[in-house]
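Reply to dn_fold:

You asked what the input looked like. This is it:
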Amino acid sequence: MFSLTQTSSRQREIIEIVLSNGWDYMRRVLTGGKPDEPQIPRPEVLRKILVELGPFYVKLGQLLSTRPDLLSPDYIKALTALQANVPAVDWEEIELVIRQQLQQPIESVFTKINPTPVAAGSIAQIHRGTLSNGHEVAIKVQRPGIDKIVAQDTILIKGIAELVALTEFGQTYDIVKLAEEFTQAVKAELDFTLEASYTDQLRRNLSESRWFDPKELVIPQIYWEVTTEKLLVMEWLEGKPLLEAEIYSLDEKKSVSDRKKEITTLLFRAFFQQIYLNGFFHADPHPGNIFYLQDGRIALIDFGMIGCLDPRTQQILTEMLLAIVDLDAGACTQLTLELSESVQPTNLVRLKVDYERMLRKYYNLNLAQFNFSEVVYQLLQIARNNKIKVPGNLGLYAKCLANLEGVARQFNPEVNVLDEVKPLMTDLFRRQLIGDTPLQTSLRTILDLKSIYLKSPRQIEVLLDRLSSETLQWNLRLSELEPLRRSLDSSANRLSFSVVVGSLIIGAAIISTGAQTPQLSLISNILFAAASLLGLWLIVSILRSRRLK
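and this is what came back:
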């Protein structure tokens, strides 16, 4: 196990920051105390600690904000807008990184680079430049030395996780595995070729659609010939963040309000296609990542955070949407179990009661005011409260819906989310029933029916044969039967001891009554002593079980 007591400047710095913010649990852990049940610091304190610890921990906090199945809403809210308070790196250092990555004179690739960054973050900063062919580009350059900081802090995070794993909390949520998952996600963001490939994949997926005009949506082009692990060069898109832009109508016959409605519909359809059809989606559509371009089109940028859903999960989430609209607690319960990765038995009654309590407040609510993302967050919180482990990518799914719905309501306060979602849900269920190729689906169904038709007579014959020959056996498993069996065994054992004690006392009394020799008197005394000891043990056992009633 990694020792947190090793002396190093970075470890001392982390300990000082943690102690200065008064996190009592980590004070005990870092000073060698007993790692009791963790007490997570208050949301604002946790946010302050992460900012002070630096870029790696800020990125870790941003990843935690995608896990409502682990954290309550106040923590998710505090971590969602978490940004590192880091100054921009001097141009001389950035230029050195660019030259090292290009392995050729920078002047032969770029005719111009603005030394003042457009934006600076915890991992990288972006500069505007011009390629030698005249194309305007955005140049994303990794901060010098960030890879070494991440490698160093990864070791510390894993060490802390191993300590927390000793607690019930750590075992319940498999803290070591979570730490590994989060640190690998941060390391992946250091490889800009991955982000570049995600960008290309999304562009291909959204280049065709039956729900919207792909020409209305722009994904920046990647210049692979000058893109490396620490340098990402992509098409420069002239525009402003959607909520800051001045919207105008492309059609003189339509008002600005109509245009806003068109853009809202475009966004919902583009993201629903990513989530429910492609299973590969931009997981962070916050206002700064959705641009309104000068030509009136919409652009998506920054594809460092991507979510993936397999076909089975897509189908379950589609059914979950319908269950939410129908306010069906029973369906929500069943679908949650289908999503579950937990091996422990679940209290179904409690789970359904939690869903009924949560959905009850929406019974008399106008569906136009229905907040889908809020309900999805609450579903994940109910799973967390019932210790049901769900796939981690559902956190990215919930975050994507929350950001999308939040942007839509800020951009167009008149939006009716249900009206936007309803036709998409109808098409999704149609696709699940008959697929994209009805003929192929029909043939597969016919083959399945044929298989059932051929197998059923034989299976019925086997069943009747076993019934007639009395060889039919039933294998039943009752989850609550084992505790009942142990309780019955304990009761039977106590009853047996009581009978033995009573027998010893009666035997001793009979012997003592007719005792005429010292030997018989000794046997009588031994029997009385044995009965007394067994009786005393039985009384203590009953008292310790606390079951006198």
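The CA atoms of residues 368 and 419 lie 8 Å apart.
Hope that clears it up.
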